[in-house]
Amino acid sequence: MDITFRERNELVGIVLVSHSFELAHGLAALASQVAGAEVRIEPAGGGPDGSLGTTDDTVVAAIARADVGQGVVVLADLGSSVLTVRHLLENGNSNGHIRLVDAPFVEGAIAAAVMSSAGQELDDVARAAEEARDARKL
User: Fold this and answer.
1) 3 domain residue, yes or no
2) Known catalytic residue: 97?
3) Could you report the per-residue pLDDT of 116-135, keeping only the tens digit for each?
4) Torsion of CA 9, 115, 58, 56, to 10 degrees
5) Which structural domain range is residue 124 located in?
6) What is the pLDDT of residues 41-98, one digit of tens each?
7) How far is CA 8 from the centre of its chain?
8) CATH number at residue 66
9) How many domains does the chain have?
10) Is residue 81 part of a domain?
11) What is the model's pTM?
12) Distance between CA atoms of 75 and 100, rounded to whole angstroms?
């Protein structure tokens, strides 16, 4: 594997969509510490009044903030957050380089962050997130 270091604006961005504001922001902080400030990791979580939920506007804004390089990998925590992202991407809010990945939320976010920080391509970052489901803890 050839690792090429890229400028910040060439790295893959990451969006973390959760029903919980705290979960999305906490995981973004953790992944950012692992990846470094060069990787744009954006949280999108919680309803407009602080309740649990996801909103189209929050997700669209997070994708726009993360989309400064060669694409965006999006991870979602549970059912309706996945549906929210799928709905947005199917309705023309994707410019062809935004990927919703089927990955474990925490492990996938960390794997994606590490691969992005190493300057890997969008496909490789997405694959690393998806393959994190096989990571054993014990």
Assistant:
1) no
2) no
3) 999 999 999 999 999 999 88
4) 110
5) 8-131
6) 999 999 888 889 898 999 999 999 999 989 999 999 988 899 999 988 887 656 678 9
7) 16
8) 3.40.50.510
9) 1
10) yes
11) 0.90
12) 6
